[in-house]
Specification:
By secondary structure, the chain is of the alpha+beta class. It has 26 helices and 19 strands. About 50% of the residues lie in helices and about 15% in strands. A hairpin with a 5-residue loop joins strand 1 and strand 2.
Length: about 675
């Protein structure tokens, strides 16, 4: 107020007050009221203000109002604090869906619950073990709920909301286009079979869905050979005056120029529909009758045509037949590695295997379990796809009964989720599982994915450039037996398998991993330094501080510089994602989060080194256990060994025999006999 009065005495606010119009007039009216009530003289005298005029009071009030208006406009109101305890008091004990909202009312997470209050209470307890959930709860500013009749309805609503809003902390399925179908028109005189993707509201019949466009085109190509139903565009069909090339190569019956009767063409269309419905046997039965009828009328050329068509149908039916009946089945398998999930879906409709398709669901920043991922995947996947009567899975998803109820509710008929343990169906799941693993391996080795992980590794280790060559060493043995060291090499394109090496470790105390690592590294880098060979940018050691110390000693002895050494120490329970990196000359330790792309690359390199080492160790151990000691004696070939063992009845008798007794065996000289004797008695091994 003192500042406003000072500005008024200078004359500037007086002019503002005169030009303020409506707002200023209200201030003057309020000032007159205060004057009438004799309030202003008291205020002015207490504040030491000489002027008691209405103009002065109105200007001061005007300035105070402007300041308050500016503060309300430019100062943010404090964010209301979310009180979970007060909120939980209003939540009912009923099934439904809840939405966690952030500061900007963005949806952080969508979940469903059988009991909303009990489920939501678990988020606001004193201790939360999951780091992802802890980070999410800290951002919650509000929670919205929707009550449903059953838990299955809640699951359906949850899936719709996740699909629509793609919350940050939910497992998301990214699926761009819908599945393709085979579409047979019904309005034309000569119906057309075609590839189709989109809304199924057109008149006609749709068959599918097929897992990929390639599967549709392959099926259409087969149907050209089998049924000769046209697949050309309507505009092309309507303007033909002579048959096209498809007719010449016997891929079409030529309806465009009347080379086939309407009855015969309709019959071909009907056979095509039966084939797509899985009723191949019905088609074969009709063709067999036609073949016999043609043969009885001595129309052998037509009979041969029917015969070839029957053989093709039987061959294709054997290739596509999967389900052991005319049922609809989806085979779903999941494989999780390096923080990436691969889900493989094989589609079987009416007994025909329509092929497969792979998905990579987007995971939140946590170590999600396969059962949890598969549960979310199935719930979202079948929102936009037909639900078969049976869904075969590699692992049972979380809460399968609720998921079955939701899918049954959506489809209007019984849907079962099964995990076969034996029989033919278990082999289908194994096939899908292998495909999922292969797809994930290809994803990990893709150039784009590899480059992203290399950039992340460069940032984590603080390297000046991207690493162009990385090597990893691992030791494998069984209680010290047949020790083998492996060296795997990764470059900017992934594994460089032609440069992998194995080292058979000898001359050390059995089970001494430090000595084995020292010997393997010495052999590797002595050869590299002597021949000016390739040196890695990063040398990974599968082990802790002791193994890293061996690597540092070897490189120092051989005067090798410019190699970054990183040890990979296993975490508690040897669980993936809990590894600790040992860097900075063995004194620094770094623990990367489970979702780190750099950690995923390190795990991939480490696992490949372990696989290569254990494969070599098993081969060496097997060879040692199946190899006869006699093979190590120079001059004792296979035939002489066979004769020697027959004469003495076994190896143990050969070990106990004297040189003179050994020399009595045909083909064994006295010199060779002494060599055999010395070998078993330890004089000249």
């Amino acid at each position: 107020m003192t500042f406003a009065f000072y500005m008024w005495k200078k004359g500037s606010l007086h002019r503002v007050a005169q030009a303020s119009g409506y707002f200023s007039s209200h201030c003057r009216q309020f000032a007159k009221t205060m004057m009438f009530l004799k309030v202003w003289p008291v205020i002015s005298s207490s504040c030491g203000i000489a002027s008691k005029s209405i103009v002065g009071l109105s200007i001061i009030l005007f300035c105070v109002s402007i300041a308050a208006l500016w503060q309300n406009t430019h100062m943010q109101a404090p964010t209301p604090i979310f009180d979970p305890q007060d909120f939980l008091k209003t939540v009912p004990h009923k099934p439904g869906v809840y939405r966690m909202l952030g500061k900007e009312s963005e949806i952080l997470y969508v979940g469903k619950a059988r009991d909303l209050r009990n489920r939501l209470s678990s988020y606001f307890r004193g201790t939360i073990a999951n780091s992802r959930t802890f980070a999410m709860v800290k951002q919650i500013c509000n929670v919205e709920i929707a009550i449903t009749g059953t838990e299955a309805e809640a699951l359906l609503l949850e899936s719709n909301l996740i699909k629509k809003h793609a919350p940050r902390y939910n497992i998301l399925l990214k699926d761009g286009k819908g599945y393709p179908y085979i579409y047979i028109t019904s309005k034309q005189e000569y119906p057309r079979i075609q590839f189709y993707r989109g809304s199924r509201k057109l008149p006609g019949q749709f068959f599918g869905p097929y897992p990929s466009a390639g599967a549709v085109r392959q099926t259409l190509h087969l149907m050209k050979k089998l049924f000769k139903v046209r697949q050309c565009e309507d505009s092309f069909f309507a303007n033909r005056s002579r048959p096209c090339l498809e007719y010449q190569i016997k891929r079409c019956s030529g309806p465009c120029v009347g080379l086939v009767s309407k009855e015969d063409y309709d019959q071909s269309v009907r056979h095509a529909i039966q084939f797509l419905q899985g009723r191949t046997q019905d088609v074969v039965g009709e063709l067999v009758q036609k073949m016999e009828a043609a043969a009885s009328t001595l129309n052998f050329e037509k009979a041969a045509e029917f015969r070839d068509q029957i053989e093709s149908l039987r061959h294709i039916s054997q290739q596509q037949y999967v389900s052991g009946g005319n049922g609809n089945v989806d085979v779903v398998a999941i494989h999780l590695d390096s923080g990436i999930a691969s889900v493989q879906v094989f589609t079987v409709r009416n007994g025909n295997n329509l092929g497969n398709r792979n998905f990579f669901p987007q995971l939140p920043d946590e170590d999600a379990e396969p059962a949890e991922i598969l549960g979310y995947f199935l719930a979202q996947y079948y929102l936009n796809h037909d639900v078969p009567s049976d869904i075969l899975v590699s692992v049972m998803p979380d809460e399968p009964e609720v998921l079955e109820e939701m899918l049954t509710l959506k489809q209007g008929r019984k849907v079962a989720i099964r995990q076969p343990q034996r029989g033919e169906r278990s082999k289908w799941v194994e096939m899908a599982q292998r495909n999922a693993e292969q797809a994930l391996q290809m994803q990990l080795l893709s150039k784009s994915g590899m480059q992203q992980r290399l950039f992340a590794l460069q940032e984590v280790l603080g390297l000046d450039e991207l690493p162009s060559r990385m090597e990893c060493f691992d030791i494998s043995h069984t209680m010290g037996e047949a020790t083998v060291a492996s060296c795997v090499v990764f470059d900017m394109n992934g594994p460089a398998k032609s440069e992998y090496r194995r080292y058979n470790i000898d001359g050390i105390q059995p089970g001494d991993d430090y000595a084995a690592m020292h010997q393997a590294l010495t052999r590797r880098f002595r050869r590299a330094s002597a021949s000016d060979g390739k040196l890695p940018d990063i040398l990974f050691i599968d082990g802790g501080k002791g193994q890293v110390s061996q690597a540092l000693d070897v490189l120092a002895e051989l005067q090798v510089s410019g190699v970054e050494i990183v040890g990979i120490a296993k975490g508690e329970g040897r669980k993936p994602g809990l590894e600790t990196l040992i860097i900075e000359q063995g004194n620094g330790r770094l623990a990367l989060p489970e979702y780190s792309k750099a950690l995923h690359l390190i795990q991939q390199i480490r696992d490949e080194a372990h696989r290569f080492a254990i494969t070599g160790h098993r081969a060496r151990r097997q060879k040692a256990r199946t190899q006869s000691p006699l093979e190590q004696i120079e001059g004792l070939g296979a035939k002489r060994r066979q004769v020697l063992l027959k004469q003495f009845g076994g190896l143990r008798a050969v070990e106990r025999a004297s040189a003179e007794e050994l020399a009595k065996v045909p083909g064994i000289s006295l010199e060779l006999a002494r060599r055999i004797y010395d070998f078993f008695n330890g004089e000249d091994k």
